[in-house]
Amino acid sequence: MHHRRLLLLLAAALAVPPLLHARTDAAPRAVAPRGALAADEQAHIELFRRTSPSVVHITTLAAQRDFFSLNVQQVPRGTGTGFVWDDQGHIVTNYHVIQGGSAARVTMADQSTHDAELVGAFPDRDLAVLRIQVPRAKLPPIAIGTSRDLIVGQRVYAIGNPFGLDQTLTTGIVSALNREIESFNSRTIRGVIQTDAAINPGNSGGPLLDSAGRLIGVNTQIASPSGASAGIGFAIPVDEVNRIVPRLIRDGRFVRPALGVTAGPANLHRALGLPKGVALVGVSADGPAARAGLQPFRRGRNGDVVAGDVITAVNDEPVTDLDDMLANLERRQPGDRVTLTVWRDGRQRKVAATLGSSE
After folding, report:
1. pLDDT tens for each residue of 283-305
2. Cβ-count burial of 186 within 10 angstroms (0-12 exposed, 13-18 middle, 19+ buried)?
3. Taking CA 15 as the corner, what is the angle to CA 14 and CA 16, rounded to the nearest 5 degrees?
4. Distance CA 254, CA 243 (A)
5. For 17-31, 128-142, 277-291, which range has the lowest pLDDT when averaged over its residues?
6. For the CA atoms of the chain, what is the radius of gyration?
7. CA separation for the pair 37, 147 (Å, rounded)
8. Pair (203, 286) in one structural domain
9. pLDDT by residue (tens digit) across 273-285?
10. Which of the listed residues 225, 251, 277 is the one where a domain comes to its end?
């Protein structure tokens, strides 16, 4: 009986219709015509073709000693993005991309790699300038735009190297303007551009572009608990970049104009009922503030507080704290003349001062 069932099953298997057997004469289907690309697709392609040669991949190196031979060698430490600033070989990136590295290498769009030297950095704005020695023909500078007339909703593009994947294009819009973020040395960066263009680790230091392919910002941070893009990215506005980078190239550092003052803590304002501004607890002898007649808060002979000055505005622009005043002064040069609005003991006056140097 068992053998009879096996024979029936075998017969059923042999009776499978021919349609269930694999065909050996199948041919690929005909390809449907594509037609022309949409206008926005063509615009994306043209923008990437035109601007991507200006974008570079940066690898930072750290010195490491071999455990057995004790020889010191350079090993990769991290990666980021940068872009060609001019045909002199200057490359702009974020300060945090090269922070802590002992050397850096720049890989161009043609995949050639070059050793880079640090020209200057300004951690307060998370900006750094490198330089490579290559022929000018291989250095297409990125076109510079402006950030003062940006509008929420306008299209933007980011090119970078997320997770080490070089020459990646993402697109989005300006999500918000005038955001504030904290730099890596706890200074506030103001006027920051927020975008939903995908920005991931490795994009730092890369360009944020408008639809004309002009630089409008330098991608610097993301807001994400996971460390991956969550649609909230931040870029340093190009007007800040264009103010700072030339001075880093010229001087190798950003020298902030100074008044020669020391600011009191926030609780001093609360304890004495002072207005918003910069309460002075120290004034450098023969410094700009001293020459303008400013006085610090100090203790009298009986231990009581002798009223000093509070700077509340610079050139009629209100300053609410020290960070605010420093941001104001950074837009100026040592030797510039400014008008300070000063409060003392309930009275307000204006005084002129010539800015000195923070060095």
Report:
1. 998 899 999 999 999 988 888 88
2. exposed
3. 95
4. 10
5. 17-31
6. 30
7. 31
8. no
9. 999 999 999 999 8
10. 251
